[in-house]
Structures are given as C-alpha cells and as structure tokens.
Amino acid sequence: MTTAIQEHVAKSPRHTTFYLAAGPEAATPMIFVHGWPELSISWRHQLPVFAGLGLRAIAPDMRGYGRSSVYARHEDYAQEEIVADMIELLDHLGAERAIWVGHDWGAPVVWSIAQQHPDRCHGIAALCVPYIPQGFAPEAIIPLADRTIYPEASLPAAQWDYMLYYGENFAAACAGFEGDVRDTVKLLFRAGSPAGKGQPAGTAFPRANGGWFGPGGKAPDTPRDESVLTLEDENRYTAALERNGFFGPDSWYMNGPANTAYAARAPGGGRLAMPTLFLHAAYDYVCETLESRLAEPMRVHCADLTEAVVESGHWMAQEKPAEVNAALAKWLAARLPDLWPRR
C-alpha cells in the first residue's frame, strides 16, 4: 500500500479545490481541513499515517488559500460557501460520507458539515475549536470567556478582541500581516508553553494597541521554531501567502451574521448524533477550553462525544503529531471500527 502524498485538483463550475491525497482510492475518505493561515501541508504528519492505516487521507487547500480558488468579496468566505466546497470535494471523490477532521477555522467547517449535512459524515474530529451550535461568531463565544483572566470592564471582548479588530480595521489587519509575510509565518507558528497559563492572550489587545503589531507595524523578525516548522515548511507557507495575500484568509472572520444565520437553519436544532472527537490543546490560550466555558455548548449538543487533551499549543497537528495521530486512531478504533479495512 502506498502512503505517498500526491497532488490533485477538483473542479466544478463554481469552485476549484487543490488537494493532497494518500492511501487507497477506494477506501473511506478521511478529510483534513486546515485553518488560518495554513495550507493542506498543515496535515503533512497525518496524511501518510492514516493512509498507512488503510484510509484515503485527503487535505485540501481551503478557499482563499494556496492553489484553490481565491475570491474578492468578504461574503465569498462565509461558512455556507466553504461547506459547499467540501461537499463538492466529497462528490468528486465519489464517496457518500467521510470522516472529517478540522483545526482552527477548519473546525467550524467540519462542525458545520455535521450540522447541515449529517448524511455526509461518518464522524467529526476537531482540534482546538469546539462545537458552537450558534455558529463560530464573536456574539456566540464572547459570553463564554473566562472573566477571571479577562475582566469585562477592561477587556469586554476577552481574547476574541482580534475578531472585532478585523471588522473595524480590515485593511490595516491585512497590511500588518503582509508587511513581511515570512516574519509573520515565523511569529505565528510556534509551540505552546505552560508559562502562558492564566495570562491574557495577545489576541485580547489588537484594538487597544492600534493593530496586531502597533499602528502601521509588521511582524518582528523571530527565529523559526523548528519544533513546529522546517525551513521547507516555512518557505511553502510564505510563498503561498505572498502569492494570495491575507484578504481571503482574513475574510473568514468577516461573516459572523451570515454564519449565525446559516447555523440557525440546521436541521435538528444543531444536535449532532454521529461520533465526535474533540482534542483540547493544553497550552492554547486563545482557544482555551479547559478552564473557560468554551466547550460547554459542545457537551450539550453532541450525543456521542469523546474528549482528550494534547500537551501542545495551538498548532497541535504540527507540534505534537504523534500524540494527535494516536488520539485520532484510538477514537476511530473505538467509535468507528467498521470503517477500518478488513483483511
């Protein structure tokens, strides 16, 4: 069985999706959905492993990223459009259902697929971002903040302040990241640390600071964190983000009302019956799920939920791939055993 990763393209009249794939073409699809500001290569440590276990492991570049279609309007990056891309990809693969795995903004995508198209899901696994039945929007998550760390009087939007900054200063936000894309990549992709526990995340301050890096600022030059990225990885992220810019990736944050309306139309009131897995990142202080109430709605609305903790920061699949792969495989074997190939 080959576990070599190959490049593919799925085209429809409305969208083009570039994707990586490994494993037997006729096997159960396991589709890995990346977040901001990543690429299909974010799953480079997962694809060969799950291909080797007999699944068809797939990772697309999401819209606005890499070699997939890029659009010029904010509304083109609403969840409803992104979910449609993924259903088209599944159709292209000739499969009725998939195991969906999402990280960061990829997690709301796979949760939305479960909400809107439960018949296209074997199961859902999410890293870092739990299920928010109302839709992943500031209005839904700010009330779940840990007010012992983010006092409402001084930090009313808590760690989600950066989402509001996009809405108020979108062009400046893009310009800050694009000032030096390589330095942005090196600054973002870093391992987690226990030292940040109990401290406010930097995402709580962009509006107060006049930008991610201060007014008119760009990312500082920091050493690459080799525990997360190799030089080759850094080069690939940098080239893709330099080519496409940050308008598309940042526009994912500009559709809160549309995403909320989309979630409200979900059948069954948004309750999920299929097996679901959530991996908490112990040292992710933006998507902090161990002390805050952020994971509570998920526990109420998922009928078959498994939870596990990975001792990592936000970039879990790249920082601690062995632990992530083990947690995913354990869940698949326990909750979806019939999807494993029979010999």
Explain this structure to me?
There is one protein chain. This protein has 343 residues and is an alpha/beta fold. The chain has a single domain, classed as Alpha/Beta hydrolase fold, catalytic domain (Rossmann fold), CATH 3.40.50.1820. The chain has helices spanning 47-52, 79-92, 106-116, 138-141, 161-168, 170-178, 181-188, 206-209, 231-244, 247-251, 256-264, 296-301, 316-319, 321-335; strands at residues 6-11, 16-22, 29-33, 56-60, 98-103, 121-127, 272-281, 302-310. The chain has an eight-stranded mixed sheet, sandwiched between helices. Helix 12 (296-301) links the parallel strand 7 and strand 8. It is globular and about 55 Å long. The protein starts with 5 loop residues before the first strand and ends in an 8-residue tail after the last helix.
Catalogue the unreliable spans: none
Profile the largest sheet. 8 strands, mixed
Spatial strand arrangement across the major sheet: 1-2-4-3-5-6-7-8
Number of helices: 14
Shape: globular
Q: Overall pLDDT, averaged?
A: 96
**Strand and helix order:** EEEHEHEHEHHHHHHHHEHEHH
Strand content: 15-25%
